[in-house]
Write a structure and sequence with these properties.
By secondary structure, the chain is α/β, with parallel strands linked by helices. It has a single domain, classed as 3-Layer(aba) Sandwich (Rossmann fold). The protein has nine helices and eleven strands. The strands form two sheets. Strands 1, 2, 5, 6, 7, 8, 9, 10 and 11 form a nine-stranded mixed beta sheet that branches. The protein has a two-stranded antiparallel sheet with strand order 3-4. Strand 9 and strand 10 form a beta hairpin. Helix 1 packs across helix 4, helix 4 packs parallel to helix 5 and helix 6 packs parallel to helix 7.
Length: 275
């Protein structure tokens, strides 16, 4: 066996050892960009940590890593030593890993081909010292390309794939492809989330369906996968995101945060049904 094969085997062993300490892994996907996938991933991880669950979030959107910004930890870096990579901790129960936390110039684009990207994802999964986790949330880039495929192949026993869409037809069309992708690689679909399903006016609080309504729910029924729920959009979400404040931290203060917490509960019920 050559040196390269030996190194690969050792990395594979570390990966299995690290992932064995994670009870449940969910891969968050979207068929297209602009549907709020990373926002959903961040709020899902944050909400789980709020309930006392030991949670990690891994950002594998290598070309557009936004998780650090959304959690206001852009000025922090991952600590690397001989025994592995230490994730950045947010509060008591949330650990974060992203290429944005490696001291990379945020203005410099990542120009990598598929094998290089797969190698980084493999290294994150094999070398990060997550410790014992109840949940690992993986935020993948839009589509069904290299990064989500690599993650799914490296985590074949993932608990499920969560698909984020907005209600309009063009987004739902691409979301349907994500369902077929999940089935082809034999990972269960935990469900579809219909994000930006309604706009809540900050002045009169009337909800308007600016992106239509029901497209995600209809697709879930037709494809026979769970519909996890819909989350209306509120203008203050933009400010929250820029400040690094997940909107679920305002639970019971807004219709949207309450709706999202209901989705979190249904995801946990999905796990219960499978155990």
């Amino acid at each position: 066996m050559g040196a390269g094969e030996t190194e690969f085997g050792e990395q594979e062993s570390r990966l299995k050892e690290k992932m064995a300490k994670v009870k449940h892994t969910f891969i968050v996907m979207s068929g297209k960009g602009g549907v709020g996938k990373s926002t959903v991933a961040v709020n899902l991880a944050y909400a789980l940590s709020m309930t006392g669950k030991k949670t990690g979030i891994l950002d594998i959107d290598l070309h557009g890593p936004n998780i650090a910004k959304m959690l206001d930890i852009e000025d922090r870096t991952l600590f690397t030593h001989e025994s592995g990579i230490e994730p950045v901790e947010v509060g008591e129960n949330l650990k974060v890993v992203s290429i944005a936390l490696l001291g990379h110039n945020p203005d410099q684009p990542i120009i990598w081909r598929g094998p290089a990207k797969a190698g980084v994802i493999r290294q994150f999964l094999s070398d990060v010292n997550w410790g014992d986790l109840d949940y690992l949330i993986v935020d993948s880039p839009p589509g069904t390309g290299d990064e989500p495929l690599s993650a799914c192949q490296l985590i074949p026993e993932a608990s499920g794939i969560i698909i984020v869409t907005t209600p309009q037809d063009v987004a739902v069309l691409d979301a349907r492809k994500s369902v077929v992708f999940a089935r082809e690689i034999n990972i269960p679909v935990a469900g579809i989330i219909e994000n930006m399903s309604g706009f809540i006016c900050p002045h009169c609080h009337v909800e308007t369906d600016i992106f239509k309504r029901g497209g995600g729910e209809k697709a879930a029924k037709e494809l026979q996968v769970p519909f996890l729920g819909r989350v209306p959009f509120q203008p203050e979400f933009v400010e929250f995101g820029d400040k690094g404040t997940p909107f679920v931290s305002f639970h019971h203060a807004s219709k949207s945060s309450d709706a999202f917490m209901g989705i979190v509960g249904r995801i946990q019920e999905f796990i219960g049904e499978r155990e």
